[in-house]
Design a protein that fits this description.
It is built from 13 helices and 26 strands. With 660 residues, it is α+β, with helices and mostly antiparallel strands.
Length: 660
């Protein structure tokens, strides 16, 4: 064990404390093998740091020189005391310092390297009990680091997530080397600018301005690190800082699926950020965040099932939080009808959904896969509209393709309706595109907390080819088949889809990228129709609840969301055969369903095999008469009734009034 150098950094809080702990990664690095984005390159124990090992994708070198694997080396040393790990880190860091002049890399790359060198050095020293550098080496590394800090400080990115991580790296450096920060000038600058960056980049509903689930969680991690490091330094932060961080944590909570991973919305990997949720729960004293982070093992269950984030354009539906069934087996949907997102991360995915049930995703967002446009240009495929669970018009993207941010006009999305009630949830949005004149609206109904009914309204002034696509998870490809004698019906592992009208379905080859640079084949269910205007209905039935696909019949209605639609769904669920009848529209309207006559924006009744009413829910301006259990109950609250609900076995109707 070497004696601590005088230059050794002071202890700082590491937001990556629970990450980068893979001993196999450390072993590969010791042997000179580096794996980035699924590609392993043998670069030797003393690599050429100025070379570009993978010229087809510049991101490989970008991630390589951020030195995240240095934390794996430090962890491997702390648990084994094997000098090979310590020596490898020292050799690689000092080799980089000797070869690469300060300021050579983009500021966001240098910032992550600054952070990770300090984090790894701390991990060696405080967990491994060893300073990995000699005194002369430490002096050279600190001098180099401080030159890099100066280069980052002088060339800060103007906005968005790169600025966040650059400012956070400046803060970590200032706290780790206070003797180099006379008068704490850099420290205070970083704290103040991080506060301004937080308020500018995280919308009032908590969603990061880039509208990417992945980058949202990465940015939130840096802001949580800021909060904890401020507490350790006894440096108070404004109340508005903590309040906005809490809003960001709220979105991170609700966008995590029951299986613990995030949907890969807009340049995202489908990872788990449970460590971020757990840290947020502890720092913000939020037992519900701890509960979600631990899949219900600790903390307290959240109460909201249908969460809305109108500024970011994300809306969720959820069956529960693991109180009545295993946590991972809850049902979940996320719906996107918001802005494309600032910067270049936005995908052309207006009105897309991702759905999960039974412990896994059923309908997926394929992810980002790559930023490279090298042939065959996978960047374009993963970013395009056809790579998402939505509708294309004439084979076009909703927004004309650009590798980064749109060069011209972008598709716009807006919310049409949102209603949440017991056993029924409705969310609807609309997409307009600069690429075509047709307008796409979509309503998503979560029925009985069991299945989904998706209505796609396509309105044009001339004829178009509308193509509806549903991207299934890779597991579904093992057993997927179009059902004989059931037009528009397909069954696969985990999910069954029924599309009405029953136009021919086809199965396309698709992809799923769980992380950058790695992709797996996954089936896509597609259907095309040529029309001026039309409505397509899709029932999504989780196979953990339904052995057979649902049968859907449109009984009445127009081709616009403002027009009432009357739909019948037949199935055989956990409680036996049933018939669901649903009516909904953009506004309140007259509704005649089995057991209910009245007005509402949306209403649902379920009858059993004997025709008895067993469930009812209506929402938004409910009034009318419910006939159940041989008696009639009048609902006369009109526009003041947010929802009314009844289920067999309950003694009476329950209601919620507006403002209650």
């Amino acid at each position: 064990m070497s004696a601590p150098s005088a230059c050794m950094p002071s202890r700082v809080f590491s937001v990556l404390e629970s990450a980068c702990r893979d001993v196999s990664v450390a072993d590969d690095v010791v042997a000179g093998r580096f794996t980035i984005g699924g590609l392993t390159l043998p670069l030797g124990s003393e690599p050429d740091w100025l070379a570009d090992p993978h010229p087809d994708d510049k991101e490989w070198r970008v991630e390589w020189v951020k030195f995240y694997w240095g934390l794996d080396l430090a962890h491997a040393f702390s648990v084994s005391r094997d000098a090979r790990y310590r020596d490898a880190w020292r050799r690689l860091v000092t080799g980089f310092v000797a070869q690469v002049p300060p300021g050579s890399d983009d500021t966001e790359v240098a910032a992550r390297r600054i952070q990770n060198w300090i984090y790894a050095w701390n991990r060696f020293a405080h967990q491994g009990g060893c300073d990995p550098l000699t005194e002369p080496e430490a002096q050279r590394v600190v001098s180099y680091l401080w030159d890099e800090v100066g280069a980052v400080r002088d060339n800060l990115t103007k906005e968005r997530n790169h600025r966040t991580l650059e400012l956070y790296a400046l803060l970590v450096a200032a706290l780790a080397f206070p003797d180099h920060d006379a008068g704490a000038v850099l420290r205070d600058f970083a704290f103040e600018q991080l506060h301004l960056n937080l308020l500018a980049d995280v919308k009032p509903d908590g969603v990061h301005r880039e509208c990417s689930t992945h980058y949202h969680c990465i940015v939130l991690r840096s802001f949580l690190g800021t909060l904890q490091n401020a507490r350790m330094a006894a440096r108070p932060l404004p109340a508005s800082f903590t309040a906005r961080v809490e809003l960001a944590a709220e979105f991170a909570l609700h966008c995590h699926r029951p299986d613990g991973r995030i949907p890969a919305c807009s340049d995202a990997d489908g990872e788990s950020y449970a460590d971020v949720l757990l840290l947020a729960g502890r720092l913000l004293d939020r037992p519900d965040l701890v509960y979600a982070a631990t899949s219900g093992a600790a903390g307290r269950a959240p109460t909201r099932l249908g969460a809305s984030f109108p500024a970011g354009g994300y809306y969720t539906q959820r069956s529960g939080w693991g109180v009545d069934r295993p946590y991972a087996h809850e049902r979940f949907l996320i719906f996107d009808c918001g802005p494309i997102g600032d910067g270049g991360h936005g995908h052309y995915d207006q009105l897309s959904v991702e759905i999960a049930s039974g412990g896994r995703p059923l309908l997926i967002d394929p992810g980002r896969y790559t930023y490279s446009e090298a042939p065959p240009n996978w960047r374009r495929w993963f970013k395009g509209t056809a790579a998402h669970n939505t509708v294309t018009v004439d084979g076009l993207d909703q927004t004309p393709y650009a590798r980064r941010k749109p060069r011209g006009g972008a598709a716009s999305g807006r919310l049409l309706a949102r209603g949440t009630a017991p056993r029924l949830d409705l969310v609807a949005g609309q997409c307009t595109s600069p690429a075509y004149e047709a307008v796409h609206s979509r309503a998503v109904l979560f029925v009985g907390t069991e299945y989904w009914l998706v209505a796609d309204y396509l309105e044009g002034v001339r004829e178009h080819i509308y193509e509806l696509r549903w991207h299934l998870g890779p597991e579904a490809g093992r057993n997927i088949a179009i059902q004989d004698g059931c037009p528009g019906t397909i069954a696969a592992d985990g999910v069954a889809l029924t599309v009405t009208p029953g136009f021919p379905l086809r199965i396309e080859d698709g992809w799923f990228a769980p992380r950058y640079g790695v992709k797996h084949s996954a089936p896509v269910v597609a259907m095309a129709v040529r029309a001026t205007s039309t409505v397509l209905l899709t029932a999504v039935a989780p196979r953990d609840l339904f052995d057979q696909p649902l049968r859907v019949r449109r009984r009445a209605g127009g081709v616009r969301f403002v027009d009432p639609l009357l739909v019948e769904v037949r199935g055989d669920g956990p409680s036996g055969p049933f018939v669901d009848t649903l009516s909904w529209a953009g506004t309140g309207h007259d509704i005649h369903l089995p057991g209910f006559r009245g007005t509402a924006r949306a209403a649902w009744t379920r009858t059993d095999a004997d025709g008895r009413l067993v469930a009812f829910t209506a929402m938004d301006g409910v009034a009318g008469v419910l006939s159940a259990d041989g008696r009639q109950t009048r609902i006369d609250t009109g526009s003041s009734c947010r929802w009314a609900s009844w289920v067999a076995g309950e003694p009476e109707l329950t209601m919620e009034r507006s403002g209650s």
